[in-house]
Structure formats: C-alpha cells, structure tokens
Design a protein that fits this description.
Helices cover 35% and strands 21% of the residues. The protein is an alpha+beta fold. The protein has two domains: 17-142, Jelly Rolls (Sandwich), CATH 2.60.120; 145-240, Winged helix-like DNA-binding domain superfamily/Winged helix DNA-binding domain (Arc Repressor Mutant, subunit A, Orthogonal Bundle), CATH 1.10.10.10. A hairpin with a 3-residue loop joins β10 and β11. α4 packs across α5 (175-182).
C-alpha cells in the first residue's frame, strides 16, 4: 500500500502575522497622547507598532520624567513581558501621534518564537538594533548639545528611506513633546527650531518638514555658516530667538 503523503505545512508569513488579528493578538487604535502601558503595570503583552510614533518615558522617585527612546512604525515595545511571568513594565509607552498597533499576548508571542525560527530571527535583530540605539541615545544625552539632540529626533521622526528623498513631513508633534524628548526647555526648542529654519534645514506649515541636509548637524556637529571664532550678530540673534506663532505652549508648530 502506497504511503500517504502528509500535506506540507504552509510557510510562516511574519509580515501577515504582524498586520492581522488572530489567536492571542488584536489590532489596537491609539489616539495622540494615549498611554499604551504605564511604568509599573503588569507586563503581559508585546505591542507591534504598525503606524505612527510613540515614546518610552520613565519617572524617577523625585517625579522627574525622562524620554528613553522614540518608537517608530515597524518596531516592538513591551518586550520585557517575555522576560518572566509576572514581570512589570519598566517605562511608560505613549503615542506621540495617532497609532495603529498589534497587541500580542505574551503566550502567543512566546509560542510563535518557539515554533517559527524566521520570526525569532526578526525579533532578535530588532532587540539588537533597539539596544544599540538606546546606547547611542544615552551617549547623545551625556555628551551632545541640545541642538544636536533635537536634530537627531527630527531625523528619526522623518525616517528617510529612499536615497533620493530630500525632505519629509514628520508626524504632528508639539513643542513641549520635543522638549521632553531632548531634555531641554520649550524656549530652547524654539531657539533651535528657528536656527534650523533660518538655514533652510526645516520648514513648517501646520506640520514640520525636515530636509535631509539636517544630517549635517549630526555628522559635522555644526550648522551652515557656523564659525566658532565669530559670534552671531545681534540682529540675527534677535530674529532667531523670536518664538513660533502659537496659542499656548503645547500647540503644534504653525506659520
């Protein structure tokens, strides 16, 4: 009697897994400033950001808040839930813009990692990249100027991909949010943003448009025309310190 052939198991599609609801996972729509999870909450799920931006923040015992990192579409957050049963979130994740995320139950995440090597490889690669970026962010906070930190955040939010992309609109973001992310005051953000606009590195009309030339601030640590031996003349200093037109300290940037 001929041996019956067992049907082949269909190849696992990691992309489909991360964009669709299913056993142990569901789609979550998040409003701007909505909390995804809070520091100290039970860590029982991992979130995969399908669209939008979020941030990770921690609050010290003295009440001081610090932004750890910015989370972009295509990244996970809440991975500490995989460390052990009963783990707690070490930080607060908050949507910076409207987001769509996939909520993945801890058990479902562990199951697919155990059964599907390609997915495990994808997730480990993400963890390595996240670790290197947080390390870079820490060095950035310790040694770089506020101006350079702001340039880096704007470039991260712009997510330049194609080689021929010269400028991109970033998600709507407030002055206060940017100040929190770089550990500076809103007035400092005003000054830096006006500097960037003065040199044609950004523009704004409701939303901020970032030009790829802003990379020079990161790579060469200076703005066009900067000269360490020559201070900015008073008239330019006055114009650069003029605030953005706004209705309150947390409004979006506008003309």
């Amino acid at each position: 009697m001929a041996e019956m052939l067992q049907p082949e198991k269909p190849a696992f599609d990691a992309e489909n897994f991360l964009v669709s609801a299913g056993l142990g996972r569901r789609i979550v729509n998040l409003r701007e400033k909505q909390t995804i999870f809070s520091q100290g909450d039970a860590a029982d799920a991992v979130f995969y950001l399908q669209s939008g931006h979020a941030k990770l923040t921690v609050v010290a015992k003295n009440g001081k808040e610090a932004t750890i990192t910015l989370i972009s579409a295509g990244e996970f957050v809440g991975e500490e839930s995989l460390a052990s049963l009963g783990a707690l979130h070490l930080a607060t994740a908050t949507a910076v813009s409207e987001c769509i995320a996939l909520w993945i139950e801890r058990e479902a995440m562990l199951r697919v990692m155990h059964e599907e090597y390609p997915f495990t490889e994808l997730f480990i690669r993400f963890l390595l990249v996240r670790g290197m970026r947080i390390q870079s962010d820490l060095i950035d906070q310790l040694f770089d100027s506020g101006e350079k930190r702001l340039a880096r955040i704007l470039l991260l939010m712009a997510e330049f991909g194609e080689q021929n992309e010269l400028e991109k609109l970033i998600p709507e973001v407030t002055k206060d949010s940017l100040a929190e992310m770089i550990g500076a005051t809103p007035s400092s953000v005003n000054f830096f943003m006006n500097r960037f606009r003065e040199f044609g590195l950004i523009d704004y009309n409701g939303r901020i448009r970032v030009r790829k030339a802003l990379l020079n601030v990161i790579l060469h640590d200076q703005l066009p025309g900067d000269n360490a031996a020559k201070p900015i003349i008073p008239d330019i200093a006055r114009r650069l310190s003029e605030p953005f037109e706004e209705t309150d300290s947390s409004t979006r940037f506008i003309n």
